[in-house]
Amino acid sequence: MRIKSSASDIRINRETRQTTEKLSQNSAKLASGSRIVRSSDDAAGLSISEKLRASTRSKQQASRNAQDSMGVLEIMEGTLSGMSEMIVRMRELSIQAASDSVSDTERGMLNLEVTGLLQELKRTAEGTEYLDNKLLKGDNKKLTVQVDKGNNEHDRISIELVDLAQTPLALGISDVKVDSQLRARLSLSKLDYAQGSLSKSRAKLGAMMSRMESTINNLSTSVVQETNAKSRIKDLDYAQATAEQTSAKIRQSGQVSLAAQMNHQKGDALKLIS
Question: How does pLDDT run across 63-89, given as a tens digit for each residue?
């Protein structure tokens, strides 16, 4: 004689498998902290969260790009500050040489210092670089910084370098001399022009640094907002998941117990007919 499985047996086995699968899925979600472990959990939510994740990562890199460019601008501003001090010193020497209180002999000595300062200005302007880019020589037209996630013009900021050329020739002081009273007096207007040019360049750099700081702040705010949006879509509600896990364990325990009882009853039936 053969004892067939009843409808109750089939239903209990099916529900036990479903409960076990539910426990497995909940365990994976609790372990990962994510509500969406696989695409079948929420296909639309997964697509949106992945787009937000890509956008967030891109903006984080764009923020690092902007921070790197701040380093470039700070290098340039610091260099221009030092060059400004050299020009101030050259003007001081010109004032001294323009006076009858010194002779041509002393003017010749003063001119040696002026010549040395001009050479240092030239060396500084031509030697200031970042990643092989000459920053103050005027060779490069611009540096382009990617500051957002797209490929549009407004996703990039350009730092114009042509207007920031600060060699003695560009400043108009390459021929400054103070070896005579006349040359010393003529050098004053040239040095004033050079000082004004340096100040203008430093003002441009200051404005660009302020813009970069605003860009970095805006990117940081955007990253926080997109991260929060992704979190609301994908992150797991631990309280709800834990409650569901506990409920599933209770159901599984009851189903296993019921299945064991039914198997025991089958065994008793076999004993009666054997």
Answer: 999 999 998 899 999 999 999 999 999
Task: Give dist(CA 14, CA 63) in Å, integer.
Answer: 53
pTM of the predicted protein model:
0.70
The answer to whether residue 50 sits within a structural domain is: no
Separation of alpha carbons 99 and 94, rounded Å: 9
Higher-confidence residue of 89 and 25: namely 89
Domain that holds residue 18: 11-33+236-269
In a domain, 184, yes or no: yes
Q: Cα(174)–Cα(168) distance, rounded to whole angstroms?
A: 5
Q: Which residues contact 182 (CB under 8 A, 6 or more apart)?
A: none
Residues 6+ positions from 184 with CB-CB distance below 8 Å: 94, 95, 96, 97, 98, 107, 177, 178
Taken in order 84, 86, 87, 88, is the CA torsion positive or negative? Answer: positive
Is residue 112's pLDDT more than 90? yes
Burial zone of 182 (CB within 10 Å; 0-12 exposed, 13-18 middle, 19+ buried): exposed
Secondary structure (DSSP) of 107-135? HHHHHHHHHHHHHHHHHHHHH-EETTEES
CB 216 within 8 A of CB 65: no
Number of domains the chain is built from: 2
Assess contact for 219 and 147: CB atoms under 8 A: yes
What band does 32 get if pLDDT is binned at 50, 70 and 90? low
Instruction: Answer yes or no: are the C-beta atoms of 121 and 108 closer than 8 Å.
Output: no
Three-class DSSP category at 233:
helix
**What's the DSSP call for residue 152?**
S
Element containing residue 142 per DSSP (H, E): strand 142-146
